[in-house]
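Summarise what follows for lecture notes:
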Amino acid sequence: MNNIEKARGKIDELDDKIAMLYDERMALAKLIGLGKNKLSSVVQDNNREKAIINRVTKRVNPEIMVYTKQLFNALFDTSKAYQAQYMKLSSNVADELKRVLLKGRSTFPVSAAVACQGVEGAFSSLAAEKLFELSDITYFRNFEGVFSSIEKGLCEFGILPIENSTVGSVNAVYDLMREHKFYIVRSIKLPVQHSLLAKRGARLSDIREIVSHEHAINQCGELLKRIKDVAVTMCENTAVAAQTVAQSERTDIAAIASRECAELYGLSVIENNVQTSGNNYTRFICISKNLTLYPASNKISIMVNLPHASGSLNKTLSKFSTLGLNLTKLESRPLPNTDFEFAFYFDFEGDIAKPEVLNLIAELDSGSDRFDFLGSYLEVI
């Protein structure tokens, strides 16, 4: 037997002992969790954790002090997650969610008054028509108008684009999320197929200017490379671009917009499917003023302020990992008037009715400078 095999055999023996000690430690953690539950205490004691780290790292070889710290941090994470199973943590957000759950889940409406950004034919309106069989749509010039209409109760629901598979997140929407009170009640992934639209009779060789939304233009880079000597003009919405072309007297201007806009605004389709990626989709969220939970909700969105401190994000991520919750999106946005502090937006798969998920919400709510629960909802395709 060589030295490597001997070392591995010894490691196996030590692993068995470690497993037995871990089992004993977790049994004690359970007793502490049950005791804290009776006292309505919190799971985490940062001062005690620091004291343990300082004590154990002094007992090991200096070369592995950092590794020992990492090991015990993982040990703390699993211990707290195990304790939480035997506790009912409380916070303002978690308590409100429990009250809503007690009322029962509502049926998602068939018809609704919906707010969208842009004009008729915008992709947001196409998303609204897929989410609601009957939708009375009010259009607003910008995203701010959609959020405000929901807050003021002018519309029941609002539809907003949040990310595109080609160009990424819609940062303006993420930034507005921090300024407005709302809840996500549903989301939808909508395939986005762009067409090049112009006045009837116009040909591709005639076009000297293309107008569209910034994201749509970025999604159609290959088209713009093919067309020479063409000016590109940004506007607030693809449907607004089609409307602009329709109202113009020029025949050398075209819009990148949906095929539906051609019929709406009396334009011709010069070329279909001009997006660069064949798998181009935009994810839209449906927001509401009221916290409402609908059946089959399988996704949760939150926003948390994290300090500019070593390991703050990693500690938060470990909470999801320990509970086996699948993170589907992590987005960071800088906090204004701060030095390198960020708000983090999390999407994860989970059932809000499960105790461990409610405990996680309570823990994040209680332990953060600012915590926003953005919704528990179903994502449809």
